[in-house]
């Protein structure tokens, strides 16, 4: 068995395909012992893959986009999440969300996990015809701090995770304005990436990981998620398993996971335009500049030991 360590930017519901592949033995079938951890701060993932402590980072593709030809070249070799898992909450009930409702409003977007949430929200507003400069943002504070401030009266809207959105609705503290998993459109939200030279030096290692992850993805699309009660109970012990399974079913129905683990080219191009418009990069990058599309690491025809 060969070790494959993943340094992830979070422990997230939308990372389910990896957890399934681990628990159901798909990685083991490929001869891999896959481990993962979430470092604090999350930027440590870069040090982990730079020094070889981790084989891959799991997080936003905006990081390798910004680092390209500036600091170090990383390449995304596999897509995990195809939608943003966040929900825009409003202080007042919203009957039929329209992006122009954000005109002049104060929107709280945490900076804890990076810039992706702000880039997507402002990018979607722009595509709907609203100048992002018309939206007032607070986006530099810790998530828990912003949530406390929102509940205390700051802001008109806040972007939160799915479990928090459900809790706020149950408590009567806020209202769902827009579920980005349902209505935000395709985006390569979470990808696996590694230093370009690591992918070139050990392509077979990454190919085996990819094939096993694809099996996890296939399983999710073909089976009742209620079969994952034990997995869910272990991963999210602070929540009732049936509640978590309901959240996962919501994500599956919303298109969170594509049928293939390959990075979606069309969604990639849209995301690159948003990143450039937000000034994170000088220009939208081409797909083959930061996505590893070599046959040996994108083919799903590698054999695994399923005996």
From TrEMBL:
Q: Report the domain of life of the source organism.
A: Bacteria
Name used for this protein in its record: Thiamine pyrimidine synthase
Which pathway does it serve? Cofactor biosynthesis; thiamine diphosphate biosynthesis
InterPro entries found in the cross-reference section: NMT1/THI5, SsuA/THI5
User: Which species does this protein come from?
Assistant: Pseudaminobacter salicylatoxidans
Q: Which Gene3D superfamilies match?
A: Periplasmic binding protein-like II
Catalytic activities? N(6)-(pyridoxal phosphate)-L-lysyl-[4-amino-5-hydroxymethyl-2-methylpyrimidine phosphate synthase] + L-histidyl-[4-amino-5-hydroxymethyl-2-methylpyrimidine phosphate synthase] + 2 Fe(3+) + 4 H2O = L-lysyl-[4-amino-5-hydroxymethyl-2-methylpyrimidine phosphate synthase] + (2S)-2-amino-5-hydroxy-4-oxopentanoyl-[4-amino-5-hydroxymethyl-2-methylpyrimidine phosphate synthase] + 4-amino-2-methyl-5-(phosphooxymethyl)pyrimidine + 3-oxopropanoate + 2 Fe(2+) + 2 H(+)
Q: What does this protein do?
A: Responsible for the formation of the pyrimidine heterocycle in the thiamine biosynthesis pathway. Catalyzes the formation of hydroxymethylpyrimidine phosphate (HMP-P) from histidine and pyridoxal phosphate (PLP). The protein uses PLP and the active site histidine to form HMP-P, generating an inactive enzyme. The enzyme can only undergo a single turnover, which suggests it is a suicide enzyme.
Q: Keywords for this entry?
A: Iron, Metal-binding, Pyridoxal phosphate, Thiamine biosynthesis, Transferase
Instruction: List, for all copies, the residue spans of the domain called SsuA/THI5-like.
Output: 14-224
Iron among the record's keywords? yes
Coiled-coil residues are none
Span of the signal peptide: none
